[in-house]
Amino acid sequence: MAESRSIKQRTPLRIRVEPRLSEPPAWFPAVVSFSAILVALILGGILISFAGGDPIRSYIHIAKASFGDIGVISDTIVKATPIILAALACSVAFRMKLWNIGAEGQFIMGAFGASAIVLAPVLPAETPPWIFIPVMMLAGMAAGALWGFIPGYLKAKFNVNEIISTLMLNYVAVAWVNFWIFGVWTEGGFQMSPKFPVAANLPRLTDFAKIFPIFRGLTTHLGLVIGIVAAIILWFIIFRSRWGYEIRLIGDNPQAARYAGINITKNVIWVMMLSGALAGLGGMSEVTGVVHRLQTAPLAAGYGFTGIIVAWLAKLNPLVIIVASVLFGALILAGREIQPSGVPKMIQGIILVCLIASDFLLRYRIVIERGEE
Amino acid sequence: MTEQISSTEQKLIVEMRGIVKRFPGVLANDHVDFKLLHGEIHGLLGENGAGKSTLMNVLAGLYRQEAGTILVNGAPKIFSSPRDAINAGIGMVHQHFMLVPSQTVTENVLLGLDEPRFIMNLPEYDSKIAALGEEFGLKVDPRAKVWQLSVGEQQRVEILKMLYRGVDVLIMDEPTAVLAPQEIEGLFDTLRAMIAQGKSVIFISHKLQEVSAIADRVSVLRKGVATASGVASKGVSRQELARLMVGRDIIFALDKKHCQPGDVVLDVRDIYAENDKGLPALRGLSLNVRAGEIVGVAGVAGNGQSELSQVISGMRQCKQGQVLLGGDTVSNHSTLFGIQHGMAYVPEDRNHVGSAPNLSITDNIIMKKYRKSPILKNGLLDMKAATKLANELKQAYDIIVPNVSTRVRLLSGGNLQRVILAREISGLPSFMVAVQPTRGLDVGAIEGVHRLLLTQREAGAAVLLVSEELEELLSLCDRVYVIYEGKIMGEIMIKGEGQDEALVDTIGQMMTGTPLDQIQKEGVVANG
Predict the structure, then answer these.
(1) Which residues on A lie below 8 Å from B406 (Cβ)?
(2) Residues of B in contact with A1 (CB under 8 A)
(3) Domains in chain B: how many in total?
């Protein structure tokens, strides 16, 4: 008895965690996410000052470098575009609890598929853009879908762990593209293909500078529209279509899905293909909107992995992904301004950890009580 | 605080007073008292979900009780982890083993201990553990890797783990569920050897035969309340224990109208099926249900009831035999096939099978209707129509929630069950199989579920009701089959009001494995 009293004296307040028995108010998740980002920025700031920097100035610099004027805003959006599509790809797979870590490889394969239309060539260089672009989109999606089908089929038929297979296929994709640009499609021995004809490039704002002078120098390209349209369509698929309902049901409770008569095996394959197609579309958009030639380094820049983070950040909601991608586009862009690697990556990481940890507050509540019961 | 020495000659080793433990929507332990004497095997009986494991998890330090105290050797103890409980001499062997498959027996036993500190001198510990095993009749090779061991041997490793930690009280949670009959005898020998060494054992089970075979005293839990505590197992019959387990308290004046049964709707013909562990669960089982009648399946849990409902609904494959629904074979098809043939299914596990916890009530309501108009319109889900349907059903079935966009994991057991029943019944099924539809519900909710089942009967549907509540079956059903180890022991017609004791006794005997024809034969002999 004496023993237990002394423990209570030492801890007059007790903190207890208990599961929430009722739904928190609608505004609560938004506030928690926002606070998590704030906490992450504060933690990041502490680390910046440890590294000898001034956190406030660093953050102001980041803000200026990414949203300071219309030019950098456009650059931010260019960075955000591939992330939107990669994150949409991840989100649809994650919603079904399929851990597709291979958006990176599917993205690269999408770029390859689109490039093949020009380089094989499937269509001659004189083809008008209104044929070129849709055909390249389809080719990019098909190549990405194929790269999603392989792990999807293996998972569905042989229960092969999709985390490993998708991760490994990333390396295969890079090696595959390298083979083509080192050998078959090389530009005079350099590790890149020749430049695409202008008709095969996605139109950019600056291309309309003659009509709207304000667009001069802005590199935002049609890929943004593709990304936003894809996000809206995906939102409809997930929340309004019969298929999306099945995806949500399987993701939440596969047993209940089986009970409702849903074929899970078939859905695993289809969802992996949709995921791959979205990532492939991202690759197509990047290669035809920014790079304008097939080249590994600027394509395998980790968009597929950033997509994983953004998908979680947006809680897998396709429309929120657009906003979150712009945030990450800004971080990537500003990161280059401050430091080639290091701090900005670190802040990304801290934000993700804080956001995932904050999810805890949505499911549990913290009770502080006096020592005596 | 003065501790009275109990009047019995044996010393009290563990005492639990007024233990309360709540889970979302369930009161798992409601002021339960429990006393364990030194050197006894204490059987803890109860149905699935009665709160046995919860109570023992509290004693083993896994759960923290909301109210009540635990005394070990008369001193109050607060356990905040299993380590605390082990330090107080209490250890538990769980139903699902907690072993590392790739490590040896010795490594598993030593796992988590402070010794050996740095250098693993395993041969020395191998011989120590072998000697300990010898002492209690637990034969297992200390150098074998756990994945190479049979389930029975793995259980011995779990027991060794606890003995090595020097526990005086060993809690065994449903230890026989995973064992073959000859292994059960071996386990009982070990338990007796432990008693001879001055240890005490708590034996959790829902199998009457085993408890009366091994236990000195028995406590019974029912719906979180102790219905018997510490009765000597010699002085109580199995029938009496069964009654304490399943209870006799729900007697509603159910308005059961006379119904003339129609054609056979469900015809189960001689099916064989295995359980998840690959052991035979159904062994040549046949039954049928006609339109406009409720047919019950009575039996102690784990005799194949779950597998039966899964085979009927298409969630489990059967090895042999077939299930016909309205003349079509539904067994070994997809679950969708059954749904399209008018089958409704209220599964045993409403949280893990019957619902998607993080989706809204609306999403859960349309689970079997989203493939058709009016929910499906031009290839898209009409969420307005879905919400309208959900609101109508919320009204009609008394689902008490602020709105239908609430996620179902926040609902109480009774409300969730009403959501599931609303979904299943609103599909206007020709046949419905309901498994334990009232388990864990409060009295009012139970009555609601019963009324819904009777309405189905009056609407001309065929209903198969699987339940462990004998009283429920007797008050709802037109006929009752009794299941034992995957076989039907017999079929009993329920005549209506005034159930006599003899009928209950007959069913009780069938539930413990005596076929009906044998009982009748003996009856004739006795009468003659």
Answers:
(1) 23
(2) 1, 76
(3) 3
CB contact under 8 A, A253 and B352: yes
- What domain count does chain A have? 1
B208 assigned to some structural domain: yes
Task: Tell me whether residues B355 and A256 touch, CB distance under 8 A.
Answer: yes
Neighbours of A316 (CB within 10 A): 20
* ipTM value > 0.95: no
Distance CA B242, CA A106 (A): 61
Report yes or no: B93 and B199 within 8 Å, Cβ to Cβ: no
Q: Is B237 part of the contact surface with chain A (CB cutoff 8 Å)?
A: no
Q: CA torsion B445→B447→B452→B456, rounded to 10°?
A: 150
Cβ pairs bridging A and B (under 8 Å): 81
CB atoms B381 and A4 under 8 Å = no
Q: Concatenate the DSSP letters of all residues of B141-180 into one string.
A: -TTSBGGGS-HHHHHHHHHHHHHHTT-SEEEEESGGGG--
According to DSSP, the β-strands at B264-274 and B280-290 are antiparallel
Average of per-residue pLDDT values in chain B: 86
Contacts of A256 in chain B (CB under 8 A): 352-356, 367
pTM of the shown model: 0.75
| Percent of residues, chain A, with pLDDT higher than 70 | 93
Percent of chain B at pLDDT > 90 equals: 44
d(CA B170, CA B201): 5
- Chain A (205-244) residues lying within 8 Å, Cβ to Cβ, of chain B: 236, 239-242, 244
Tell whether A5 is covered by a domain: no
